[in-house]
Amino acid sequence: MSPDIVIVGAGPAGLCLARALSGHGLSIVVLERQAEQALAEPAFDGREIALTHGSQALLERLGLWQRLPTEDVAVLRDAQVFNGPSLFALKIRAEQAGAERLGHLVANQAIRRAAYQAASECADVQLLCETGVRAIEQNQGEMKLVLQDGQVLQPRLLVAADSRFSETRRQLGIGAQLKDFGKTMLVCRMQHEHDHQQVAWEWFGYGQTLALLPLNGRQSSVVLTLPPREIERLQQLDAAIFAREMERRFERRLGAMQLVSSHHAYPLVGAYARRMVGNRCALLGDAAVGMHPVTAHGFNFGLTGVQLLSDTLLVAQGKRQDIGAGAPLAHYERQLRLATWPLYQATNLLVELYTSDHLPARLLRGAGLRVAQGLLPLRKGIARHLTARG
Ligand SMILES: Cc1cc2nc3c(=O)[nH]c(=O)nc-3n(C[C@H](O)[C@H](O)[C@H](O)COP(=O)(O)OP(=O)(O)OC[C@H]3O[C@@H](n4cnc5c(N)ncnc54)[C@H](O)[C@@H]3O)c2cc1C
In which pathway does it act (predicted)? Predict the structure, then answer.
């Protein structure tokens, strides 16, 4: 079979790309290792994805936003950052950018379901599940993929969108700068006594990092970052004891708390690919840029990649150029690096500074928040970045 494009990974990034390229005379195959049922009805995975206005606009154009159930979409009005036991908070307000909200929080499960529905409607997109690429052969400008069942595909372009630990990236011989933060993030939904007023909290405590993402009603996604052994201990706790521990960790700022979902743990490893493209191939989503979740930009960057790669390929296709040729792919690489590298680096620096419990770091981070709070243009800049529609 010789499709125009093969995408490995039917995660939100891979499926959004398939949808964005559909309807332009290209044949697209998406390969996924999971069963189709797991894509059609994805399990709750604890992730609540903060989406910027720009990401929302793209999801609307791709026909995903309209498919999200209202109960799975919550308003993210403002955000505040605390340091240590201090009650002082750096506040980022939507109104600083003349907007009503900084963005929305959407359950990853709902995004995945909507992405599957949107892609499976496309006649030019073929989904092959419970399979993967056994071998890749690249010869004189040609790409040959041997699948696990022995099937052979010869696409004009291969897109790897198979997560930050991408096997396809490896098979293509593309390295990545991996950053292991040595911590694990635990996420779950909790009900609480006091109102969150649709404000997200990031709280860099000493010895732990806590975040609270406001959902609908008096529920929030609780995000706790600790060394892996401590997270394992918490996962063993009975729900009531777990809730008491969370109340204590949040210093009862939200009053009584109750666990209302399963909890999920993610080891914190960042990834930035050394090259975004190669001979007839490109990387997308977490396979290209796997962010630390603290700045909530992983999928937002995945969507930036979808926009950049689909625009580039469709322009090449419109001019009857080879979509797997070097020039369009080099353009995609330049644009993606420009859009992602500064925040990737800034995020890693922020994590280093705000999770270090050494005295100089503690003092510097407290001072940093106060300086940032005094810099209205900086806070306005962040708010504008989050609320810009594209
Ligand atoms: C706790 C947490 C909170 C987050 N919060 C935010 C947030 O607030 N905002 C934000 O923008 N982002 C956030 N993110 C990041 C976001 O979840 C990811 O960026 C996004 O899910 C990546 O999508 P993807 O499609 O690139 O990869 P994935 O979601 O990892 O999907 C990859 C797909 O490829 C398949 N696959 C893997 N290997 C193979 C293979 N070899 N062959 C075939 N198929 C394969 C997998 O089964 C999967 O379906 C968060 C992440 C975490 C962990």
Answer: Cofactor biosynthesis; ubiquinone biosynthesis
